[in-house]
Amino acid sequence: MTRVRTFALLAAVALAATVSLSAQQPPARPASGVGTASAEVGGTWVKTDKTTTYQGGKWMDITYGRPHLRGRSSIFGSGADYGKAILAGAPIWRAGANVATRLKTDVAIMIGNTHIQPGEYTVYIDAKENNWTFVLSSWAIQTTFDPKNKAALWGAYGYTADKDVVRAPMTLSTLPSSVDQLTWSFVDITDKGGKLAIMWDTTMAVVPFTLM
């Protein structure tokens, strides 16, 4: 076997080994996955001869990035440093990670004294120590960062309050255990409304809504 043929054979074997190794490795997972919380509201349970079905309901969905604590303690901090870690240099918290948190509602609701029409809104939280404010905004979002796009935001960077739809106080409570991955949920749902809840570390914050 000539030297050229030997080199070609070794190169082919090395390439095959590299391809095989790449095929065995799973794709990298994002540091913060995407989460969705949903609730079907405003319907009624209808009983027929054979079954009972929920009819006339409309959906509410929250889509958000889900950061992990990964061993960090007191993620929100305290005193003058409260909230700095979650802001990461933005003027307000995106209430998640990466792409800004979004609320999509197919039903009209009321938060505080403000009527919210069906549609899709950006969610932020103005988090001060012992004083959180839930914010719905009409800011459009960027799904990938584009510094030239001034009409939409990546996360909360560039946020201004002029597009706020509603600002409402949130009720804070301390959880008995630490939640590692940030979680949004619909809680205390009734035929009249419910609450939007966010949980992370040992903090839970909720804001009530009513159906219109």
Task: Summarize the structure in short.
The protein is mainly beta and 212 residues long.
Sum up the structure in keywords.
14 strands; mainly beta; 212 residues; single chain; 4-stranded antiparallel beta sheet; 2 helices; globular; 6-stranded antiparallel beta sheet
Succession of helices and strands:
HEEEEHEEEEEEEEEE
User: Roughly what percent helix?
Assistant: 10-25%
| Beta-strand residue fraction | over 45%
Distance between the termini: 83 Å
In the sheet with the most strands, the strands line up as 1-4-5-8-9-12
Structural class: mainly beta
Shape estimate? globular
Structurally, the number of domains stands at 1
Low-confidence stretches: none
Report the biggest beta sheet as strand number plus sense, adding barrel if it closes: 6 strands, antiparallel
Radius of gyration: 24 Å
Tell me how many strands there are: 14
Q: What is the average of the pLDDT values?
A: 90
Instruction: Specify the number of helices.
Output: 2
